[in-house]
Predict the 3D structure of the following.
Amino acid sequence: MLRIRKAPIGVGALFILLFPWVAGRLPVIEHYPDLMVFAGIYCLVTIGMSLLMGYAGQISLGHAAFYGIGAYASGILTTHYNLNPWLCILIGSAAATAVAVFVGAPSLRLRGHYLAMATLAFGIIVNIVFREEAEWTGGPDGMGGIPGLDIFGFSFDSIHKYYYLVWIVVAIAFFFTIRLIQSPTGRALRAIHASEAAASAMGIDISRSKIVVFSFSAILASVAGSLYAHYMNFINPSTFDTLFSIKLVIMIALGGMHTIWGAVVGSVLFAFLSFEWLHQFGEYEIVVYGLVLMMVTIYLPEGLVGLPGRIAQRVRR
Amino acid sequence: METISAASQLFQFIVTGLTVGAIYAMVAIGFNIIYNVTEIINLAQGEFVMLGGLIMVFMHVTVGLPMILAFVATVLLVTLTGMLLDRLAIKPIRQPSVMTLIIATIAASIVIKGAAMLIWGKSPYDLPAFSGRTPIELGGVVIQPQYLWVIGFLAVVTIGLTLFFNRTILGKAMAACADNPDAARLVGINVQNMVLLSFALSAAIGAIAGMTLTPIALMDYDRGAMLAIKGFGAAILGGLGSFSGAVLGGLLIGLIESLGAGFLLSGYKDAYALIVLLLVLFLRPSGIMGNFEVTKFKRF
């Protein structure tokens, strides 16, 4: 992870660039760019979370709340106050950061399971607020009429345009994350991962580094939520419940939590699994996810991204 | 309709709060048993409660077994589930870390919940109360007989466990594992069997909580997660690992929830316990009993 190789990034970028064009020519996968919009939105959330899990060694079971904070900031501020959508995205991120510091700071100072449980509780509370404050949020029925995005008169009004918008944001987030990993904070986190005691003895402020990563992941989740709201033009609380937080963990565990690529692979795969391949299972798809998660934890702790390395190791022997 | 006096209303909320609190206390005790031996927070703990309720309904209502037989059969089945959970989802993990163990128990809870949805569907099930539903009236406060069963079972579980951990060789061996697994292994205790036993015990207690809760609040496949998080809140409030703390924490969370829903906004019923959980984490992570030091964490 120290070296970020350029070749996979190039291949990935080319794939993203050409995908809508290819999909448009094959009727069977014509609707795939729509799925890829969701995949990109999931990617944004999981990139930040994988940093938290893979580097800070902490798990959040409440990221759906940050995702929801972004979405509802966009929804409420555009429909109630007619604010510019881009400004709403900024305000949402600021709110998410504030909340992340408030929730994260005390629990990240403790060790063990505390962040997991604090974020789990926090996620449920936020979801209850979305459901109960119907005057603002539309309650369980949700809220509609959220405007789309446009810039200098150019409107992101088609699936393909939004696809490129989302994936450009993902690319920006990706590079920011790499910068963060290579920054002093990132090096500090790696040191913490190797030995917390040694890192602490070197004068690294452990909880500060963890809070930075946690807040960063909250911002990404919030932006993703805003993008979701402006794409769907409609949001309701069940999109942002604990089950979604757990699905995010599944995406990361599936792809592999020790590299950012794991988050990307896991999110794209999950989007296709849930919208396309496991669709016929309906509500029972959750059993499949549970089994997949169990298998991955036991047999594939590095996730799918770790699979080629494993196979190579076997072959060499 | 005659007006209910504020005082009797308050007592009514306290009675129901203590009853629900007793359930949370049992969930918290289940958390503590596994935590003490393994340092795992078993997020599937609530699923044991859900399974206890639903299997009891199946045994007693569907199959028609007498209450006591159904009770025993349910405890055995849920205990078996708990043991399977350890052997199938936890033990096979080769490099256990806090995170993988959390993920493993989440995966297990999803599978159990999904299986329950497949078997029982989504509708809630009722169970006849253990000794009828003729309410006892006490100075304007209505007490369902089932409330007494819940609190009685909490007392039995607490006393039974205290005796088990203090008086029996097996219980002392488990306590030794909690204290120092390496030393326990040196004196010939099979730590892995103790881990299995801890899962079995807390599954059994979860089953009891589920069976006593169902006649009061019905039971459906989706109840586990919320029960687990509130039970964890109770365990944290009382100080993670402490049994008396779990009982006190559970009763307090039940009271807060009942009074909050009664006098404040009822829509936020589920939020009160969680807000308390967050506040305790932030202000006093050692819990109100204060007998658990944060620095005591051994492995993480």
Remarks:
- Chain A touches chain B through 42 residues (CB under 8 Å).
- Chain A has one domain: 6-242.
- Residues 6-242 of chain A form one domain.
